[in-house]
Amino acid sequence: MIVEHFPVGPIACNCVVLGDERTRTAVVVDPGDDVERIASVLERHALRVVAIVATHAHIDHVGGLATLKERTGAPVLLHEADMPLYENLDTQAHWLGAPTPAMTEIDRYLAEHQRVEFGSHALQVLHTPGHTPGSVSFVLEERVPFILSGDTLFAGSIGRTDLWGGSYEEIMRSIRSKLLSFSDDVGVLPGHGAETTIGVERRTNPFIIQTV
């Protein structure tokens, strides 16, 4: 399987390109910005995008949805509970002092346990609210799963809950009931920053330790 991730935009959101080597189909996760860079990765691997998905609708994760959709023709998927956030991209841009990115129609809504398939591979959707109402994590269904946690769980931290729709109680419930149900060897790529594992976070993350 082809896996490339790299920071995009001024807030360094981790964009992820996942590709099936046999069918050359791909999923792009969180194309927040720098669509030209994303396109160059797709072209280098000769990948055809079959889905563009977002872990949540903060501007740094969805700013490139419209441009990438226009370029690839692939459908865009987002959890319905984050539509109010997406529909207010102009307000988010104003908060950051940034231009408002183009918007696009959301083709399908993500739902709990939905599978987003690309070739012989798939991402499973886990609804993990708390950072936003519609935050999701994606589980790459391999022999040893790998989690794309968005802004729910970070290496040594958790996502902010002081923004619109955030809830500390919900994010901790999402982490404990869903993400920590995986074994210690499962890797985690957050929406920002370095990779980690469930085991490392279980043992060292201060937000998790203090709730035990």
What this model shows, in words?
By secondary structure, the protein is of the alpha/beta class. It has one domain (2-209): Ribonuclease Z/Hydroxyacylglutathione hydrolase-like (Metallo-beta-lactamase, Chain A, 4-Layer Sandwich). 26% of the residues lie in helices and 30% in strands. The longest helix has 10 residues, at 35-44. The protein is globular and about 45 Å long.
* Strand residue content: 25-35%
Helix content: 25-40%
Instruction: Give the N-terminus to C-terminus distance in angstroms.
Output: 37 Å
> What's the alpha carbon Rg, rounded to whole Å?
16 Å
From N to C, what is the helix and strand string? EEEHEHHEHHEEEEEEEHEEHH
- Shape category: globular
Briefly, what CATH class? Alpha Beta
The name of the CATH architecture is 4-Layer Sandwich
Number of helices: 8
Short recap of the structure:
The chain has helices at 35-44, 59-62, 65-72, 83-86, 89-96, 168-177, 198-204, 206-209; strands spanning 2-8, 13-19, 25-29, 48-53, 76-79, 108-110, 115-118, 121-127, 136-140, 146-150, 153-154, 157-158, 187-190, 196-197. By secondary structure, the chain is an alpha/beta fold.
Quick tags:
212 residues; alpha/beta; Metallo-beta-lactamase, Chain A; six-stranded mixed β-sheet; 8 helices; globular
